[in-house]
Amino acid sequence: MQTTATYDSAAGTFTLEKGIWRGTFPIVDLQKWVHFYRQQMERYPAHAGSYAEDVKALEALAAELRGRQ
User: Fold this and answer.
1) d(Cα 47, Cα 24) in Å, to the nearest integer?
2) Between the N and C ends of the chain, which has fewer C-beta atoms within 10 Å?
């Protein structure tokens, strides 16, 4: 299942979406969430592929934001 991460500059948040699940968080916490999902990959190897999609989406958003600076 594909994960998407989008940035809302007006609100200063990002939204992570996967299937019917959606969570919105402060953009300053982006790296914390990347770290969290990487840890989940290590802790739960049977689900690493699922968490990898989350990491990929979050890292892509981080790279996009770095490109805007």
Assistant:
1) 22
2) C
Give this prediction's pTM: 0.91
Q: Are 65 and 59 in contact (CB under 8 A)?
A: no
- 30-49: pLDDT as tens digits: 999 999 999 999 999 999 99
Q: Name every residue whose Cβ is closer than 8 Å to that of residue 59 and which is 6 or more positions away in sequence.
A: 34
Separation of alpha carbons 55 and 44, rounded Å? 14
The four Cα atoms 45, 49, 55, 57 give a dihedral, to 10 degrees, of -170
State how beta strands 13-18 and 21-26 pair: antiparallel
